[in-house]
Protein: TldD/PmbA family protein
Organism: Pelagerythrobacter rhizovicinus
Amino acid sequence: MIDGETALARCAQLIEAARRHGADAADAAARAQSSESVTVRLGQLEEVERSESEEIALRVFVGARSASIETSDFAPAALDDLAERAVAMARVAPEDPHAGLAPRDLLDRGTAPTLDLEDSREPGPEALRERAMAAEDAARAVDGVTNSEGGGASFGRSLFALATSDGFARAYGATHHSLSAVVIGGQGSAMQRDYAMRTARHFADLPSPREIGRLAGERTVARLNPEVPKGGRMPVLFDPRVGASLVGHLVGAMAGPAIASGSSFLLGREGAAVFPEAIEVVEDPHLQRGLRSRPFDGEGLGCLPRKLVERGVLGGWLLDVASANKLGLAPTGHASRGGGTPGVSASNLHIPASPVSRAELMADVAEGVLVTELVGQGVNPVTGDYSRGASGFRIVNGEVAGPIAEFTIAGNLLAMFAGLRAADDLEMHRAVNVPTLRVDGMTVAGA
């Protein structure tokens, strides 16, 4: 895989070619990644996969017009042709007074701390096979597990490089290690499945393969013989595995493009109390070894820690340059780069733990549900209406009872946020980390 110096040299070559062909300004973003994964099933090697990819995207501006194009052909002649075509496309594109490069005075100056995103240890296929085998063996050893969908282990490297015609030129790399196991319990139509998976920048931060496998097996067996719950309005507790999705809906509604287009259920609520005072949502792009840590965003702006929600109050929007210009605000360093045109994304997020234990959080629940899995995409980003399929466990008289499945939970995100309560069981190993969350008065309906 290419290094940062090579990637930045290609970016500089593209920008120089774009300027030579008539662009007033340009930026180029290079991405490279390699990964290797091994999957085993029922004690036998099932798949070994290796993938590598490199792309570079060019965005050019001719007056108030712009165009983006990307390629994986890095021959000098191909890059020059790409730049020429991009400029020609921009000349016939519609004008957009809001698009442009990041303001020069806001560009990152390299002030982010060392993020420690790269692990020097690179496992080979044999080490990955051993990890996958150990995870599956541990899962299958749990009493009640009857079959397996496999154990897996992977390792990957990635690189992101960005250069602009205003002089910004930076790159950073990252690694990831992953372990997983998926197993089945029961027989015939009564079969249930569950999984355990962890990803970390450094292998030293992962649980052991046996711990991953044991957790997958125990989760699967706990789901056997589920019932369909009685319907009604009742408290719903979200396990940390699924509670992070609520933060995802919040972030999507705070994204500048959604606000600028009027398609967010949070429109008009900036600076308002959307959550209870005890709830905060913290973003930390500088988290050591974080899965979404980054020193700068997709347009070259520095990324800074902030609170998206502080003491229940909604902070400012998440803005790239274009959405910031549309709203008459300053960009916030939340641009992401999947291709030529930036989008908006947040970095590492978490809801801090409260002093209340999970047991205490459900102690007064006479009848409720604990959700451990969500299915479907039934969320309206404009109105906040929420309806998703779920499975998990009944809560009866403050205690977790038997497994349940084939039911839906419904509500409205604004009402759900307004009554949100958190437990103390926060663990910081995901990109979005939350403790167990409780929402009262949701509608539960059996299938």
Summary: The chain has nine helices and 19 strands.
